[in-house]
């Protein structure tokens, strides 16, 4: 009897799942688990959870799932179709390092109990389909992802809005605006200036210990970290770099990364945010996404004779990213605040070109090492408010479209794009100037996302409609405090 590759792959998956399942029950016993936390991600990237006692976790939970109300989750179901199932993935199990009680965390997929199908608007399902589509194209068997999700750690954040008032106040002991503070405590100085926070040693970098605690927690749950450091902005901007991993696994890890950072900060009496532009006049938070394709254990983006040692495949992939960037940003820069960051002058990649080593280009080719395994593309437009499952999937689909159609990215621009003459800069394509523009671009350019059923029309329609109502219209219809400064005495 002939054994097909599909059978071999399915058998391998089943063996891996059986081993993972056995490990789950071993962890429950060994770690004396008191709570099992079932976690999943809503359409817009928020981590959600449901907790059950360990005795409720049995084989049926993994086969059939655990029920929940899908109508109460953003972007999921209407009230008349609310019953949904969470199906834990045993391969994602870890003992939570920040909870007081011994807690076993499991990431879940979402299933419709009536049809028995996986739920089309479950972001993790979209990412799994993207990985499968990559294999089906025959172009590669795996894509690797290395996101650099920047964040701020503040000491205090206050904000409020109602019919007659609107305000926010950020404070950070590290903020340069506190350099003249005369209060109850001594003022010890050592604060990064605006745009002066890149790589100063402690005591100016006041968050070394906090980041190390986050790294310790990440390592405890099996997430590899390459480095951590203070970032450019004052007031506690940080970055922790994750080791590259396949698409779904990396999106899983990024959700846990954000969860651990927020909880470690809270434990230390601080607050962490991944908001792209919380501070006026200083750098915002991006999520530069390093990506590459591999086949049979070999990198496909390397060519010793190519520009920046890029293969023709890599150039076509880059062309796909650039061609579809306006639509991609509806997922990769999905908030109105994202476009406060995407402005010139703050290392923000607003120019849709590619270049080696150049941080003013939307697609950068890192040149740290000449090794083939290090060859990758860095797409610099995304920010960490993106739902990683959807953003990674959308970028992969754009790159594959570039490969399949043989798109040409044009000539690289190895110059500081911010220093170009106005007439030269005018000829360079730019990122959208607002979320509204990005959503309109997604409406006009979405066919590449629908291939292989990776994204669906209902997901795209829900995303666009919800973002227009709850983000764009909500911000556009409210007076801005700065408008009073500009216009009150008109």
TrEMBL record:
ATP binds at residues 226, 290-292, 359. Its EC number is 6.3.1.2. The modification O-AMP-tyrosine is found at residue 418. Keywords: ATP-binding, Ligase, Magnesium, Metal-binding, Nucleotide-binding, Phosphoprotein. Residues 31-116 form the GS beta-grasp domain. Belongs to the glutamine synthetase family. This is Glutamine synthetase. The lineage of its organism: Bacteria, Bacillati, Actinomycetota, Actinomycetes, Kitasatosporales.
